[in-house]
Design brief:
The chain has two domains: 141 residues, Phenylalanine Hydroxylase (Orthogonal Bundle); 129 residues, Phenylalanine Hydroxylase, CATH 1.10.800. It is built from 15 helices and eight strands. The structure holds phenylalanine (PHE) and fe (iii) ion.
Length: 288
């Protein structure tokens, strides 16, 4: 739990792990951090983020300034796709997370990072969760994908394949790229909410960029605390939806159990490769 947020610390979460956002209690410094991050990202995301991201920000009025009030944001979001955003303490158990998604509830942290450590994130804050994730929830196909993902949690648990399902989330929802007529764009929330990774993911020489393939992705390790070594690219959200919600994962999980994992930096024979990265960033030790 982020101890630096007293409004979070004083609350006992409900059975579904949610807390009250207590929007009225954000300080002007906290709103200021949001505004600084917002301006910084809007600058770097021009020509880099997927058009749906900007559309979503606009539809939800997230460019009004200050930390969004979930009550006002949810009125708009619920009308658009039936999704709502709920606040939680911090990281929550997998089954609770899946259950929220399956019921079209996106969980978000209440706290916002410190003004003097804008690039340091020990765990997802409200800027990552709301600026990064919520805009795409206004888009019907992506909204359905997120619900289907949540519904898929139980099957993955029965197969003891949560880690493999998590990789799918990681390489799509968090770090996905998409082909557009103007070139590759970012749709993954982990990239969209990071100034440095927005440039690295699209233009860096270091990472691989490979076309999305479900089983390939579910076999691939990832970097939890540094830039990714491989980004997976989709052509459309419909493609993602068909490849995942459109398939029964039972036989896939059974098959994957007998197969080795790939390293985060691997290029494999079946890959449709857009960029073969130099991996120079990772080889030099990354952030460490
Ligand atoms: N179709 C998957 C299954 O049968 C569930 C799923 C949907 C998983 C969408 C991820 C994304 O388990
Ligand atoms: Fe996230």
């Amino acid at each position: 739990m982020p101890v630096q947020d007293p409004v979070v610390a004083e609350q006992t979460p409900a059975a579904d792990h949610t807390i009250d956002q207590c929007w009225d209690r954000y300080t002007s410094e906290e709103h200021g951090v949001w505004d600084t991050l917002y301006k910084r990202q809007m600058k770097v995301l021009q020509g880099r983020a997927a058009p749906e991201h900007f559309k979503g920000l606009e539809l939800l009025n997230l460019n009004d300034g200050g930390i969004p009030d979930f009550r006002r944001m949810n009125e708009k979001l619920e009308k658009l796709t039936g999704w709502t955003v709920v606040a939680v303490h911090g990281l929550i158990p997998n089954d609770v997370f899946f259950d929220h998604l399956a019921n079209r509830r996106f969980v978000a942290g209440r706290f916002i990072r410190d003004a003097d450590k804008l690039d340091y994130l020990p765990e997802p804050d409200i800027f990552h969760d709301v600026f990064g994730h919520v805009p795409l929830l206004t888009q019907p196909v992506f909204a359905d994908y997120m619900q289907a993902y949540g519904e898929g949690g139980a099957k993955a648990a029965r197969h003891d394949m949560i880690e493999n399902l998590t990789r799918l989330y990681w390489y799509t929802v968090e770090f996905g790229l998409i082909n557009t007529p103007e070139g590759q764009r970012i749709y993954g929330a982990g990239i969209v909410s990071s100034q440095s990774e927005s440039v690295f993911a699209l233009e860096g020489r270091s990472p691989n960029r490979v076309h999305f393939d479900l089983e390939r992705v579910m076999r691939t390790d990832y970097r939890y605390d540094d830039f990714q070594q491989t980004y997976f690219v989709i052509n459309s959200y419909e493609e993602l939806m068909e490849a995942t919600a459109g398939q029964d994962f039972d036989p896939i999980y059974s098959r994957l159990k007998g197969l080795p994992d790939f390293k985060a930096s691997d290029i494999v024979e079946s890959d449709h490769v857009y960029t073969r990265g130099t991996q120079e960033y990772a080889k030099a030790g990354g952030l460490a």
